[in-house]
UniProtKB/TrEMBL annotation:
Gene3D superfamilies: Ribonuclease Inhibitor. This is Trophoblast glycoprotein. It comes from Xiphophorus maculatus (Southern platyfish). Keywords: Leucine-rich repeat, Membrane, Repeat, Signal, Transmembrane, Transmembrane helix. GO terms for cellular component: plasma membrane. The lineage of its organism: Eukaryota, Metazoa, Chordata, Craniata, Vertebrata. PANTHER family: LP06937P (PTHR24364), TROPHOBLAST GLYCOPROTEIN B (PTHR24364:SF21). It holds the Pfam family LRR_8. The chain crosses the membrane at residues 300-320. Residues 1-26 form the signal peptide. GO terms for biological process: negative regulation of canonical Wnt signaling pathway.
Length: 364
């Protein structure tokens, strides 16, 4: 009769294994697989292909309509997946645990999307990620808050170019000790303050800040640059305000060898030096005459000084003339005394009832 018991369950297990092996080797619908590369491009996919070959090394899912990725987007562990390209997907959300089954992910291209929120737990704690591309995919710097708590200690290259950021979140670089290349070109930055003396970005070697809205650089930023000896910085294409406040930057630029495009920096303001190369402007031309705040500040200081001077002179006059003042006070005292005695005398006379009539008569 038909085999039973252990033999039958063994056959079932074998069949199951076979099915599993086949399903893991097969290429997902709408994808092309060759060797260890899987490409599912421009297919209007709305979610990640459900089962990827277990040996996948490179994955291209570009130009689709995948709005979000979460912990169910990669349900099986892909031990060998090291690079993944997801650009051009109109992607808005990356949820917690999204990349937890991709332990060896090294290169991730998320460019040309439109992220709203990015979970700080998207990457595993021991992520090996080295390259992250977020170019043209972030329109609000609050989206970048995930960097503050994410653990990406192996990240060396971060592309944040062509975004509309204005600012960067405080502490954004604290968890990125290995970052060497940072591209912030054309990201509408009005301020760059994140390279500080507290040791953030110790490995930074290439910083692109071209085509932003920077008008000046704070002293602390320049001091931070000075600490990184082999750093090269690009700063062209920013609207530098060549007034008195920029004189620290100008002095630093003249000495620094870090700003590789320093001869290309030009003034956007004020009118007198517009379009002039910053390095050719003299320190004496960096004035703030049109600047109401500074004028107001200096006039308050001046007023204070004048008042102090008047006070000092008044005290000096009092001191030098102390004898005269003493004499004058004695004179006044004597005059008062004479006067008061007169009153006193008349009062006594007036208050004597016996002389009341006499006094009234004498007054008349
Ligand atoms: C991953 O790659 C290694 C070496 O290339 C290979 O030996 C191993 O079988 C691969 N793993 C899978 C699940 O394909
Ligand atoms: C961005 O992605 C869209 C598709 O979502 C594509 O049409 C466009 O060409 C891409 N832009 C760039 C600059 O790659
Ligand atoms: C990021 O992606 C854009 C295309 O979307 C590409 O031009 C750029 O070179 C990429 N950046 C890096 C560092 O690979
Ligand atoms: C983004 O996600 C985090 C948790 O993942 C949540 O706390 C936060 O409120 C979200 N922010 C927005 C603007 O949706
Ligand atoms: C990372 O580790 C912390 C504790 O060290 C834990 O609370 C957190 O959940 C971990 N995050 C991930 C994504 O595993
Ligand atoms: C950025 O996102 C935050 C939270 O979602 C929101 O409060 C803020 O208004 C947004 N800023 C801009 C400029 O869109
Ligand atoms: C990052 O790792 C540290 C310890 O290595 C842990 O305390 C922290 O919670 C982790 N952060 C996240 C967001 O998992
Ligand atoms: C990744 O970072 C760990 C420490 O967090 C380090 O031991 C390891 O060498 C790094 N790997 C690479 C490839 O940089
Ligand atoms: C600069 O960034 C904006 C998005 O903030 C983008 O629309 C524009 O095409 C970018 N400019 C260049 C020259 O890439
Ligand atoms: C940034 O500069 C561009 C032109 O250089 C200007 O159109 C834009 O309004 C500026 N943005 C801010 C926030 O100042
Ligand atoms: C900036 O630093 C220079 C020299 O290091 C110093 O002379 C100057 O007063 C500083 N400016 C400000 C605004 O702190």
């Amino acid at each position: 009769s038909f085999p039973r018991g252990p033999l039958r369950s063994g056959m079932t297990r074998l069949l199951l294994l076979l099915v599993l092996a086949v399903s893991c080797r097969c290429c997902p619908d709408k994808c092309l697989c060759s060797l260890e590369t899987v490409k599912c491009q421009n297919q209007d996919l709305v979610e990640m292909p459900p089962s990827l070959p277990a040996n996948t090394k490179s994955l291209f899912v570009t130009g689709n309509k995948i709005a979000q990725i979460s912990d169910s987007s990669f349900p099986t562990r892909l031990e060998n997946l090291s690079e993944m390209y997801l650009s051009g997907n109109e992607m808005e959300y990356v949820h917690a645990g999204a990349f937890k089954n991709l332990p060896n992910l090294v290169r991730l291209d998320l460019s040309n999307n439109s992220f709203q929120n990015f979970s700080e737990s998207a990457f595993p704690n021991d992520s090996k990620l080295q390259f992250l591309n977020l170019s043209r995919s972030v329109n609000n710097y609050t989206t970048l808050h995930f960097f503050v708590h994410a653990n990406l200690s192996n990240l060396t290259t971060l592309d944040l170019s062509n975004n509309d950021l204005l600012l960067l979140p405080d502490g954004m670089f604290n968890g990125l000790p290995g970052l060497a290349t940072l591209n912030l070109r054309n990201s509408s930055l009005i301020k760059f303050q994140s390279v500080d003396k507290n040791g953030a970005l110790p490995a930074l070697s290439d910083l692109d800040l071209r085509d932003n809205n920077l008008t000046d650089l704070p002293n602390a930023t320049m001091a931070g640059f000075d600490l990184r000896l082999d750093l090269r910085v690009q700063l062209a294409g920013n609207p530098w305000h060549c007034n008195c406040y920029i004189s620290d930057l100008l002095a630093w630029l003249k000495d620094s060898t870090q700003v590789v495009d320093k001869i290309e920096l030009t003034c956007a303001d004020p009118e007198a030096v517009r379009h002039r190369p910053l390095l050719q402007v003299q320190q004496s031309q960096l004035t703030c005459t049109g600047d109401m705040q500074r004028v107001l500040k200096t006039s308050y200081v001046f007023l204070g000084l004048v008042l102090a001077l008047i006070g000092v002179m008044f005290l000096l006059v009092l001191f030098l003339n102390r004898k005269g003042i003493k004499r004058w006070m004695y004179n006044i005292r004597d005059a008062c005394r004479d006067h008061m005695e007169g009153y006193h005398y008349r009062y006594e006379i007036n208050s004597d009832p016996r002389l009341a009539n006499l006094s009234i008569n004498s007054d008349v």
